[in-house]
Amino acid sequence: MSSGGYKVVERKYFAWMGLAWVLFILSAIAAAIVITQYGVYEIELPYAGIQKHYDYTIIVGALSQALAMFMIAGVFTMLHGIHESIVEVHRLSKSPE
């Protein structure tokens, strides 16, 4: 315990950071699957034959979800870096020289 009653815990946000990046990877994979399954469809037009059409709502929704998870992972990475810096400053301030 430090003098203020606060215990410094190292790697406090490491698990949250790792979980956020794993969820981002899963979100990106899910977005790719959703876009390939539901984002593009073929329609037969009487005057032009079969043509591909894009469902922009599905594509934007899937990409937005992946981007949001990327930003959450970035926030947890920054939080982890800030916490590690504070722990290092606390450790250096307590070590006698």
Number of β-strand runs: 2
Structural class: alpha+beta
Q: Describe the global form.
A: rod-shaped
Question: Helix segment count?
Answer: 2
Biggest sheet architecture: 2 strands, antiparallel
Percentage of residues assigned to helices? 55-70%
Give, in spatial order, the strands making up the sheet with the most strands. Answer: 1-2
List keywords for this structure.
97 residues; two-stranded antiparallel sheet; 2 helices; 2 strands; 67% helix
Task: Please provide a written account of the structure.
It is a single chain. Helix content is 67%, strand content 12%. The protein is of the alpha+beta class and 97 residues long. The radius of gyration is 23 Å and the shape is rod-shaped.
Characterize this entry briefly.
With 97 residues, the protein is of the alpha+beta class. The chain has two helices and two strands, in the order αββα.
Helix and strand layout, with pairings?
Layout: H1 14-39, E1 40-45, E2 49-54, H2 56-94
Antiparallel strand pairs: 1-2
Helix pairs in contact: 1-2
